Amino acid sequence: MAGCVARRALAVGSRCCCWWSRPLVAARALRPLATFPPATPVAATARRHLSSRNRPEGKVLETVGVFEVPKQNGKYETGQLFLHSIFGYRGVVLFPWQARLYDRDVASTAPEKTENPAGHGSKEVKGKTHTYYQVLIDARDCPHISQRSQTEAVTFLANHDDSRALYAIPGLDYVSHEDILPYTSTDQVPIQHELFERFLLYEQSKAPPFVARETLRAWQEKNHPWLELSDVHRETTENIRVTVIPFYMGMREAQNSHVYWWRYCIRLENLDSDVVQLRERHWRIFSLSGTLETVRGRGVVGREPVLSKEQPAFQYSSHVSLQASSGHMWGTFRFERPDGSHFDVRIPPFSLESNKDEKTPPSGLHW
User: Fold this and answer.
1) Nearest to 175 by CA among 134, 139, 230, 224
2) Whole-prediction pTM value?
3) Can you tell me the mean pLDDT for 124-136?
4) DSSP 3-state assignment of 357?
5) Are residues 171 and 193 in contact, defined by beta-carbon separation less than 8 angstroms?
6) Residue 354: its pLDDT value, please?
7) Among 24, 49, 163, 205, which is 20 to 30 Å from 242 by CA?
8) In a 3-state reduction of DSSP, which class is residue 135?
9) How far apart are CA 212 and CA 210, in angstroms?
């Protein structure tokens, strides 16, 4: 990960959390930050300072806040400030989700299943409950998140008879519990996002000092079906871990038929020190209507990301539509090594479910 986001540093002696305000050409990976030993609790009056040591010429080191001890158990509450341990941006937790994590790297010892309706075999994988969070990303960091195909957004199908367009809420992300590096700040508006003050209220006596406004509760309740994160799928091939999170977006009528839409978010992580580059994608998309589609192409979303020790992860979102209320997707990514050799990385199979009887398309963003 390049840019100022990657240059946030933990000053161990003072427990300060700092951030370079401009992008750097040569930046250290953020991953070592996550491997620091847990800090001891710091009093609310802990000294925060601005360090000028080893400051690159023309760059300003800004104090962000004071790190807290990451939670090994339990969950973070609404209003918790954090740095993302992989992508480095500043964010704030809106609310948690309890998801089912299907990790094929720790599949059960049960015999493999027979071929399933999607036309491919799969191991018996038991879902394990795992906490994810809906968060807001600080707009100041968005231009520097180079390991994302775009700053994350939540997309919906607009519920207007004369429109087939999507509408998006920018700067929203879904974050796993282990991705969060919590910190505190005395700033009453520490995150710059158009929804921050609309969703959260500063109350000094609270911990964290930001509490949900009624508008946040109403927004979550109204759009729950489109925000809900229910299943997460993960698989590792040759030290490349692929994580997939599908989201149902809604249904639209077209030419006397129904078209169902899903968004899926994919993270690629290089767990090794060797440099690899994603070259091709190969998807198989099965619809309950009986169709099986094959999609091949160069890279993903117009990019062929390089995964290295310094920049180990890449994340992107895409969309798919079916003429049935459910289906399956699976496939492979082809990676290239520096010596020109190639290898295929499995994309874990995942279901596309609409729960159409329980969901009504959202009508827009109104509070």
Assistant:
1) 134
2) 0.77
3) 89
4) coil
5) yes
6) 87
7) 24
8) strand
9) 7
